[in-house]
Amino acid sequence: MTLIDRALPWLRAHPLVLDAALALGVLISMVIASFADPHGPTGPTFGTRTPGARSLVLMVLAALALVPRRRRPMAVLACTSALTMVELSLGAPPAPVAMSAVVALYTVAAHTDRPTTYRVGVLTIVVLTGTAMLLGTPPWYAQEHLGIFAWTGMAAAAGDAVRSRRAFIDAIRERAERAEHGREEEARRRVAEERLRIARELHDVVAHHIALVNVQAGVAAHVMDKRPDQAKEALAHVREASRSALNELRSTVGLLRQSGDPEAPTEPAPGLAVLDDLLGGFRRAGLPVELARTDESPLPAAVDLAAYRIIQEALTNVRKHAGPGARAQVSVVRVGPHTEITVIDDGAGTGAPGDGGGHGLLGMRERVTALGGSCTAGPRYGGGFRVQAILPVKAPDTGTPGEGTP
Fold first, then answer.
1. Half-sphere exposure in the Cβ direction for 389 (13 Å, CA)
2. Which DSSP state fits 272?
3. At how many degrees (to 10) do helices 3-13 and 15-33 cross?
4. Is there a contact between 149 and 105 (Cβ–Cβ < 8 Å)?
5. Residue 328, class by beta-carbon neighbours within 10 Å (0-12 exposed, 13-18 middle, 19+ buried)?
6. Distances (CA, A) of 304 to 83, 201, 298, 367
7. Are 371 and 341 in contact (CB under 8 A)?
8. How far apart are CA 317 and CA 211, in angstroms?
9. Cα Rg for the chain, rounded, in angstroms?
10. Quick one: how far is CA 170 from the chain centroid?
11. What is the pTM of this model?
């Protein structure tokens, strides 16, 4: 790292030091230029004249006025312009105090807006040039007057250009920061959606299979002594339900693996194609279930999985809450561009599904809403409970990873 690279951060943190150095450089330039005579016998000559004490004092005062130029740009411009007017009207020939006014005008243009730059720049040009032409020692058409006009005009234009470039860079930086912030927000939103989706999967898998295991384990415990054959059959169902739960959990947890992981599961997610197996598990657990299905055409993966999970969760709620002797009916009907899933039961009920802080009904509604459908659930007239979900046959593109593949 060079000395300049190390010094730049310190100078940015202490701008007054940089302005003081600039003021010193302007003072040296004014003093050197005051020894030049633009009207020599063969053109401009150097060393043929010496500035007076008054001119030296004015140059020093003008340079000192530049030190706080960034804090008080308008005041510095007014002070340097006044000192320049004094030198132009009294000096014979005048010293180049106008250099300080040029720097001050540049500072004003670089730190204000364009309308202010136009107004202040025109006023400064007119005042300084007019003072030199009307009150100065050289004739009004002297080339020095044109130099004052040109240098003050260029200072205003250069300051405005620097301000515009700085504003353009700031706008680009702000736009980049907003874009980066937007990408971070989108990433957080996608992560939250994926976590919610996996949570729904885990809830549905665990709630369904654990409910079946609990029922079959209770049957086995009840008939263990008197009917061991029936107890063995119940334990076999427990083993089957446990195996199914482990397989589905392995598939769901596999969603968290990297895409190139060779251990990631590749089997398809459950859908209506295995609906009979699902209903058979409930029947073996003691819940009579009837199925009415008028359409078995394949559905999009996301819709197919949502339909399966809705039926699974609704029947799990029936088994848990409908009470002994309850019967359930499941219907899958295609109605135009939608598939209608209905699950009803005739149980007396031991509490509404979701009592005790469950997330079953909420998870069903979230699934259906994510696909652009609707879901209703509530008690039936005359007893029992009814869950109905209307799913679009064509799943919308939600921008999230598909639920149809693990």
1. 31
2. G
3. 110
4. no
5. buried
6. 86, 14, 8, 11
7. no
8. 9
9. 43
10. 18
11. 0.50
Q: Which tokens belong to 101? A: 């006014």
Sheet with 374-379: list strands edge to edge: 289-293, 328-335, 338-345, 385-392, 374-379
Strand partners, 37: 45
The CA distance from 351 to 372, in Å, is 29
**pLDDT truncated to tens, each residue of the chain (406 aa)?**
566 666 667 666 677 888 888 889 989 988 888 887 766 666 567 666 777 888 888 889 998 998 888 888 899 999 999 998 888 888 667 778 888 999 999 999 998 888 988 899 899 989 988 888 888 777 777 777 788 888 889 999 999 999 999 889 988 988 888 888 888 888 888 777 777 777 766 666 666 666 666 666 776 676 676 777 767 776 776 767 676 666 666 666 665 554 444 444 444 467 888 888 888 888 887 888 999 988 778 888 888 888 888 898 888 888 888 877 888 999 999 888 889 999 999 887 654 554 444 567 887 888 888 888 899 988 888 788 999 999 998 755 544 444 443 3
Structure tokens at 9: 């951060």
The span from the CA of 52 to the CA of 160, in Å, is: 35
Q: Is 316 helix (H, G, I), strand (E, B) or coil?
A: helix
d(CA 121, CA 150): 12
Q: SS3 for 358?
A: coil
Neighbours of 111 (CB within 10 A): 18
Tokens (6 digits) for 325: 């002797």
According to DSSP, residue 295 is labeled -
Q: Are 326 and 347 in contact (CB under 8 A)?
A: yes
